[in-house]
Write a structure and sequence with these properties.
9-stranded mixed sheet; 2 domains; alpha/beta; binds iron/sulfur cluster
Length: 322
């Protein structure tokens, strides 16, 4: 380094990257290769620096594991039936008043437990302009839709210009009252929350942001500062968490997470029961255990810190509180 700066970390995207970073642990490179052929890998610098050991709660979520090669009998490539409920590319319409819009299927990080793991990846699923126009037309033709939820993939990795244009187009539809974005970016790559992005999100239509956060350690000062940029633009932040064995399945860890969210002005919204996507059973927590953990928190933590424990039933039957 001629100017004396330490080497910059970069996103780990291949088996070789994982091995070179010393994160492979006991997993053989052959098993890693087999996993990588099937499911995308990305661990951005912000998350790499949080991994203390491969088996820690951060490492477990993002480091590929040989267990992903085993699909349990009840696991399903599309556990919540997104595909079946998709009238046109990029739209999922299950509840009358809300529609999902997935402008792309790439993410800043690939979570090993993701319920859309068979669909997401770096090279797939960007809607082109014609498909976006069709999506706007579908929403405009369905006056019962009041809220459009941008998800993916991760909408916040789009350029501020492109994302801003999508939000403007949706907000211009007369019956759209509220917009929402679901994202992992504040935790995975807070450097993407630039002033330009905050400005693009500052639109007349009320916009909510649901940030996916599974452990208090993910809420670094960079993540909190990024979210603050958006809060200053009148964007309320909701927290969504997936209950994951070995990551956050005990009262102390979840309590710390929900309190950390409140300190960052994030309202814990949903605690998701894991969906049965292929190769994710090592993360399964029985619902009785999830209920017991939440019950033990009640009374010991502010009511404002408690999310709804929710399960998205297989086959497109929709979410129910557990
Ligand atoms: C989860 C989900 C929503 C949003 O549900 P909320 O309970 O409003 O957060 C909307 N559409 C689909 C298809 C969903 O899976
Ligand atoms: S960021 Fe969300 S959509 Fe992307 S891999 Fe993780 S859980 Fe799945």
């Amino acid at each position: 380094m001629p100017d004396g700066h330490p080497p910059q970390k970069r996103t780990l995207r291949s088996v070789q990257d994982i091995i070179s970073a010393g994160l492979a642990g006991e997993i053989s490179s052959a098993a890693l290769e087999a996993v990588a052929t099937r499911y995308a890998i990305a661990i951005p610098p912000a998350l790499q620096s949080l991994i203390q050991t491969p088996g820690d709660p951060i490492g477990l979520q993002f480091i590929p594991d040989a267990a992903e090669l085993f699909t349990a009998p009840h696991e399903n490539a599309d556990p919540v039936a997104d595909e079946a409920l998709s009238p046109i590319p990029g739209i999922v319409h299950r509840y009358p008043d809300r529609a999902l819009l997935k402008p792309l299927l790439a993410c800043p990080v690939y979570c090993r437990f993701c319920f859309r793991r068979e669909q997401v990846g770096p090279d797939g699923g960007v809607l082109n302009d014609a498909q976006l126009a069709d999506a706007y037309a579908y929403i405009a033709a369905h006056p019962e839709i009041r809220e459009v939820i941008l998800t993916g993939g991760d909408p916040l990795i789009l350029s501020p210009r492109r994302l801003g244009a999508i939000l403007q187009n949706l907000g211009a539809i007369a019956h759209i009252e509220v917009l929402r974005i679901h994202t992992r970016v504040p935790v995975a790559d807070p450097s993407l929350i630039t002033d330009a992005l905050a400005e693009a999100l500052d639109i007349p239509t009320p916009l909510f942001l649901a940030a996916h956060i599974n452990h208090a350690r993910e809420l670094t000062s960079a993540a909190v500062q990024g979210l603050e940029k958006l809060q200053r633009r009148r964007i309320p932040i909701l927290g969504q968490t997936v209950l994951l064995a070995g990551v956050n399945d005990d009262a102390q860890t979840l309590g710390e997470l929900f309190r950390a969210m409140l300190r960052a002005r994030i309202k814990p919204y949903y605690l998701h029961q894991l969906d049965a996507a292929p190769g994710t059973s090592r993360f399964h927590v029985p619902p009785e255990r999830g209920r017991a953990i939440l019950a033990s928190l009640r009374g010991h933590i502010s009511g404002t810190a408690l999310p709804t424990y929710i399960f998205d039933r297989p086959g497109g039957l929709g979410k129910i509180p557990l």
